[in-house]
Design goal:
The chain has 110 residues and is mostly helical. 63% of the residues lie in helices and 0% in strands.
Length: 110
């Protein structure tokens, strides 16, 4: 007999994980597209990561723009953190980004 693999996060499909990961890699564009697609924005996992990726990308753009002149552009390496977030989203995790996640939850966006 072969055993069926157990999904560690029930209700989350592989499509949900892929769309959440792409929201971080191509932020904020894909996140906005996910929120405009009716069938995607009704999925809580996709909506959470789409909104969070938009917020994180805006924060990173502001931080990098301000600090780039002082660090001669080296602060742009901060954008690599989005790949880590994409990896975690692809694993099916709903992780908290300090300050950003609390803000989007307090605003009722997720």
């Amino acid at each position: 007999m072969s055993e069926m693999p157990v999904n560690p996060t029930p209700g989350i499909t592989s499509d949900d994980k892929l769309m959440a990961a792409l929201s971080y890699i191509f932020a904020p564009l894909v996140g906005i597209i996910m929120l405009l697609m009716e069938e995607k924005k009704n999925r809580p996992f996709i909506k959470f990561h789409a909104v969070q990726s938009i917020a994180v990308s805006i924060v990173l753009i502001v931080i990098v723009t301000i600090t780039a002149s002082f660090t001669f552009g080296c602060s742009s390496i901060l954008f690599f953190v989005m790949f880590w977030y994409a990896y975690k989203a692809y694993q099916g995790e709903e992780f908290n980004v300090p300050v950003v996640t609390d803000f989007i939850k307090s605003q009722g966006w997720v």
